[in-house]
Design brief:
It is built from two helices and six strands; from the N terminus they run αββαββββ. It is globular. It starts with 5 loop residues before the first helix and ends with a strand. It is α+β, with helices and mostly antiparallel strands and about 130 residues long.
Length: about 130
């Protein structure tokens, strides 16, 4: 019988809501302005998910940080900024390109999913900006 991780998912979400802040996630897609004349250029459409809770985690090349992240299955560059984002209902955070924190826009470099037993607990979102 598979272990139920829903209680742990809820606990992670509650902690991030308590200690974190809200950010927006942006997904951009480019489509042809006219399907019959794609050479006329493209339009950029934007999908924005607002009010997503996240915790900003500045990671450095410190050995203890590298070991802790490696234990979770991730990797740390010499200097890296990241956000921890809990499960977002109806959205896969891996499909977004940007995180907007107040007026600062961070470009997403990589997203690691912490997902035991098929239940998404957290996304570690590596950003630069």
């Amino acid at each position: 019988m598979a272990k139920d991780y829903s209680a742990l998912q809820t606990k992670a979400k509650d902690k991030i809501e308590h200690y974190g802040q809200t950010v927006d996630l942006l997904k951009e897609s480019r489509t042809s302005a006219s399907a019959s004349a794609p050479w006329d250029g493209t339009e950029t459409a934007e999908t924005r998910v607002s009010g997503v809770y996240a915790v900003y985690v500045p990671l450095t090349g410190d050995a203890s940080v590298r070991e802790a992240v490696a234990a979770l299955g991730g990797t740390v560059n010499k200097s890296m900024n990241s956000f921890l984002i809990p499960f977002v209902s109806g959205h896969d955070v891996r499909t977004f390109q940007k995180v907007v924190e107040d007026s600062k826009v961070w470009r997403i470099n990589k997203v690691d999913v912490i997902k035991p037993g098929g239940t998404v607990l957290l996304y570690q979102v590596e950003v630069e900006g």
